[in-house]
Amino acid sequence: MILASDSSSALWLGLPTACAYALTALIGPRLALHQGHRLLWVPWTLHGLGLIVAMLGPQEGGAHFGFAPALSVTAWLMLTFYVLEQHWFPQLRTRWTLAILGAAVVLLAAAFPGAPLHIAASPWLPLHWALGIASYGLFAAAVVHAWMMTRAEKNMRQATDSPVGLPLLTLERLTFRFVSAGFVLLTATLAAGWLFGDSLYGAQAAWRWDHKTVFSVLSWVTFAILLIGRSRFGWRGRKAVRVLYIGTGLLLLGYVGSRFVLEVVLGRAV
């Protein structure tokens, strides 16, 4: 879960959700399209309810956050976009890979609930976090659509039926819409941290060029290059997908990677 009070409650919430995701991965692709869609709603709903309960329920030591909770909420946001798209595009199949990903991040967040948050510096700090996590979710959705776009393009070249369920041009359009929206939110997140870092986090934790900041700025530059390349030079296909993967990897290293090293490798609660 994104926020957790202790390991027992996190497991109590996470295990049923992970089992529901695993069941969806096992039988979802074999069902009719509308049945697979409805089945995916079950773990997605449980996942969302778990996030709400964890955020609003009583928590020992206050709210927690870390690399695994960040991955959990990112995956849930990505699946939210996918569930909504299944409503708009009924031919979109339920993918077992996404269900397995959901199960993995839920269990990971239950095992590593993170460290207590100290949000007394500014009442605007939760909004700053929300913008950052929302950008993670949008870029994750872009990566999923880019992966499906690559599969659809490969099937088209081999003259075989595509299991994706959406036309190649539709997937490409959706991919760049997610990238554009994520870029806007990432820009707002970095700008807020740069301009108001001392107000958000306090004078001792204001903007500084640490690993998180460097990787985040590098990811922003990469996404900017991707969007410029798309607009000015018509980048598409494998070239655009590679740049998207690089930018997303840098973004993950910015927060998730840094927190993983601090929490797991170094054993420090920050």
What features would you describe in this structure?
40% of the residues are buried. The protein is mostly helical and 270 residues long. It has two domains: 117 residues; 153 residues, no CATH class. It is globular, with a radius of gyration of 19 Å. 75% of the residues lie in helices and 1% in strands. Strands 1-2 form a two-stranded antiparallel ribbon. The chain contains eight helices and two strands.
Short characterization:
The chain has 270 residues and is an all-alpha fold. The chain has helices spanning 7-27, 33-56, 67-88, 96-111, 125-157, 168-201, 211-233, 237-265; strands at 64-65, 115-116.
The biggest sheet amounts to: 2 strands, antiparallel
Distance between the termini: 18 Å
Radius of gyration: 19 Å
Estimate the mean pLDDT confidence: 84
Helix run count: 8
Strand residue percentage: under 5%
Q: What is the domain total for the residues?
A: 2
Poorly predicted runs: 1-5
What's the arrangement of strands in the largest beta sheet? Answer: 1-2
The percentage helix is over 70%
Helix and strand pattern: HHEHHEHHHH
Describe the global form.
globular
Structural class: mainly alpha
Which labels suit this protein?
8 helices, 75% helix, mainly alpha, disordered N terminus, globular, 2 domains
Please describe the topology of this protein.
Elements: H1 7-27, H2 33-56, E1 64-65, H3 67-88, H4 96-111, E2 115-116, H5 125-157, H6 168-201, H7 211-233, H8 237-265
Helix pairs in contact: 1-2, 1-4, 2-3, 3-4, 3-5, 3-8, 5-6, 5-8, 6-7, 7-8
